[in-house]
């Protein structure tokens, strides 16, 4: 949720350089129209903005986009899964990270483009092309509505963000390629090179490079994997691809990672959550789904890239819920994930058993067999089970109640 805050940005202070900038922007937008087929219905206003103003805006945007309770719930969920440290401040770190990364952005509420004053002049043309691609998409498909309609699912919302950023990255790359007499259409090497440009900070982004793996990978995913997804749809549908991804949005990060699943309309399953028969006093705090992307990150963080690459693509669907008893100061994670075969589920069951021992400082197993592991961890008693192709886990139970 918080990763979406920069998708809608703030008004800036008028800058005398904006006149020249907007003059360049209109020419770039016309080129992008020829590439994408999306018409420019009206000129896009643009202006400069300072990093301080971006930071100030983002702090306000986080408060407007989510209540303190919603932010607390999201942060607690990430901590329960072990995706961020227990002392991690999600809102502050998200704002700091986005402030550092922002070079330009398109405000789809005010229909205006902003570029940061610190963006080097040689980088202004590429970032303008990227943000103007958003403006074209917005004028045809209403980006605010597009994002809003995807918020029923966190994984689906990430997929839609990958459509927006992936398409803008592809169009920017094609714009630059054509200036050099090339095209992404017949150069897989160029596609691979351009899609990887966002993956290395080269030492210039200290906040990014010190952030947890989850924040780093979810930040670059919409640009890198989103671009490869857009390229796959373009290779199949040519110019129509730019409208297709808005008219028929992908529903999961798995569809972004594996475009063939998007073409085949493979939708996530919804496995039933385990029912530990919690005592009176527990209320649902937050629920949702972790997609293939998050499962890949979780596995990579604790078990390495190779294990993640082996297991994560077999993901089929997930549900989770955090239930909280504030009086008892206890939160319980209910988690179910379905895989595409029993063999894949066995692999994940073993991997998650190993993962539990790494995300907690203390792990004591009281019983264990091929289908169940029961014991206690840092935040209470846990029950990890596998039945068929579904793996479930209950974590944070009161160790004194069985």
Keywords, separated by commas or semicolons:
402 residues, alpha+beta, seven-stranded antiparallel beta sheet, three-stranded mixed beta sheet, globular, disordered N terminus
Topology:
Blueprint: H1 18-36, E1 46-49, H2 51-65, H3 68-81, H4 90-101, E2 104-107, E3 112-116, H5 121-141, H6 143-148, H7 154-179, H8 188-195, H9 206-210, H10 213-237, H11 241-247, H12 253-257, H13 259-263, E4 283-288, H14 292-303, H15 305-311, E5 315-325, E6 330-339, H16 342-359, E7 364-369, E8 372-377, E9 380-387, E10 390-397
Parallel strand pairs: 1-3
Antiparallel strand pairs: 2-3, 4-5, 5-6, 6-10, 7-8, 8-9, 9-10
Helix pairs in contact: 1-5, 1-7, 2-4, 5-7, 7-10, 8-10, 10-11, 10-14, 14-15
């Amino acid at each position: 949720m918080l990763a979406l805050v920069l998708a809608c940005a703030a008004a800036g202070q008028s800058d005398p350089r904006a006149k020249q900038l907007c003059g360049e922007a209109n020419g770039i937008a016309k080129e992008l129209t020829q590439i994408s087929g999306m018409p420019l219905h009206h000129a896009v206003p643009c202006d400069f903005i300072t990093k301080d103003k971006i930071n100030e805006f983002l702090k306000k945007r986080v408060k407007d986009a989510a209540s303190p309770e919603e932010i607390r719930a999201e942060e607690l969920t990430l901590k329960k899964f072990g995706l961020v440290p227990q002392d991690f401040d999600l809102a502050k770190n998200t704002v700091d990270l986005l402030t550092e990364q922002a070079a330009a952005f398109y405000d789809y509420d005010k229909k205006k483009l902003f570029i940061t004053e610190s963006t080097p002049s040689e980088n202004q043309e590429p970032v303008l092309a990227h943000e103007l691609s958003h403006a074209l998409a917005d004028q045809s498909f209403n980006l605010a509505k597009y994002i809003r309609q995807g918020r029923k699912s966190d994984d689906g919302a990430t997929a839609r963000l990958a459509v927006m950023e992936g398409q803008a990255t592809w169009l920017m790359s094609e714009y630059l390629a054509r200036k050099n007499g090339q095209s992404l259409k017949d150069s897989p090497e160029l596609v691979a090179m351009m899609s990887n440009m966002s993956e290395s900070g080269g030492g210039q982004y200290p906040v990014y490079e010190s952030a947890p793996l989850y924040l780093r990978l979810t930040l670059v995913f919409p640009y890198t994997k989103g671009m490869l997804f857009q390229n796959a749809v373009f290779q199949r549908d040519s110019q129509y691809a730019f409208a297709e991804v808005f008219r028929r949005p992908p529903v999961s990060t798995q569809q972004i990672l594996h475009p063939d699943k998007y073409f085949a309309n493979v939708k996530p399953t919804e496995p039933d959550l385990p029912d530990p028969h919690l005592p009176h006093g527990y209320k649902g705090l937050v629920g949702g789904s972790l997609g293939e992307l998050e499962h890949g990150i979780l596995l990579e963080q604790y078990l390495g890239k190779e294990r993640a690459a082996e297991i994560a693509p077999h993901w089929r669907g997930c549900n989770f819920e955090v239930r909280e008893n504030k009086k008892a100061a206890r939160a319980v994670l209910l988690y179910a994930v379905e895989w595409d075969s029993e063999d894949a589920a066995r692999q994940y069951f073993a991997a998650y058993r190993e993962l539990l021992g790494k995300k907690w400082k203390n792990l004591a197993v009281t019983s264990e067999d091929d289908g169940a592991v029961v014991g206690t961890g840092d935040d209470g008693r846990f029950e990890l089970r596998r039945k068929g192709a579904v793996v479930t886990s209950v974590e944070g139970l009161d160790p004194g109640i069985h």
